């Protein structure tokens, strides 16, 4: 069984991990909607990108905790809360990339690339906080040649995570596949 299939089976067997993704998506969407509607300015747009980055990071963190620890929401919250500094830092970095890439044509493809790195770095950050980001870069450069299909699937899931409703399954799937890659490659 390939890693892609195994990750899908794991997602199906751990389906309750999508609940925090739904909650965070709805809250972030409403917050962004209020900000853009009532405070339209370039600064607000920058804040929205930061909020999106932090929301994506929290969603990935909650999905990862739900997969690794327990699918119970209270366990996921306490686990992510213990790593909140790392999760927020990754979210801010992702938000900055989303902001910078918003000025480029085909920005969605670049956004998905930075989102893929977020997903692929979570197993390392989970183990060793922000020091894991450097390890993730080293591992990524070495292992990309071993299983390019799985990396392509993580990238496609990253693209899909920018679309409402589909993101509810794409984010947890990408996180699980990233962990399977981390464990096996």
Describe the protein's architecture and organization.
- The protein is mainly alpha-helical and 185 residues long.
- 82% of the residues lie in helices and 0% in strands.
- α3 packs across α4, α6 crosses α7 (132-143) and α6 packs across α8.
- The longest helix has 27 residues, at 42-68.
Summarize the structure.
The chain has 185 residues and is mostly helical. It has one domain (3-184).
Throw out a few tags for this protein.
185 residues, 0% strand, 82% helix, globular, mainly alpha, 9 helices
Main sheet makeup: none
The total tally of domains equals: 1
Number of strands: 0
Low-confidence stretches: none
Beta percentage is under 5%
| Range of helix content | over 70%
Distance N to C terminus: 15 Å
Structural class: mainly alpha
Topology:
Layout: H1 3-13, H2 18-38, H3 42-68, H4 73-82, H5 84-101, H6 107-128, H7 132-143, H8 148-160, H9 167-184
């Amino acid at each position: 069984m390939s890693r892609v299939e195994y990750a899908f089976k794991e997602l199906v067997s751990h389906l309750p991990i999508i609940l925090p993704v739904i909650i965070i998506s709805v809250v972030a969407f409403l917050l962004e909607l209020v900000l853009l509607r009532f405070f339209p300015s370039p600064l607000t747009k920058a804040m929205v990108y930061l909020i999106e980055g932090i929301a994506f990071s929290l969603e990935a963190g909650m999905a990862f905790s739900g997969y690794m620890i327990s699918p119970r929401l209270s366990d996921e919250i306490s686990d992510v809360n213990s790593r909140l500094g790392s999760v927020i830092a990754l979210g801010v970095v992702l938000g900055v990339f989303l902001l910078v890439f918003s000025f480029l044509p085909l920005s969605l493809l670049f956004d998905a690339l930075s989102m893929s790195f977020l997903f692929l770095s979570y197993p390392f950050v989970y183990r060793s906080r922000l020091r894991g980001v450097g390890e993730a870069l080293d591992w990524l450069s070495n292992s990309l040649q071993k299983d390019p299909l799985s990396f392509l699937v993580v990238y496609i899931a990253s693209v899909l995570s920018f679309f409402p409703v589909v993101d509810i399954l794409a984010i947890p799937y990408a996180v699980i596949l990233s962990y399977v890659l981390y464990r096996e490659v």
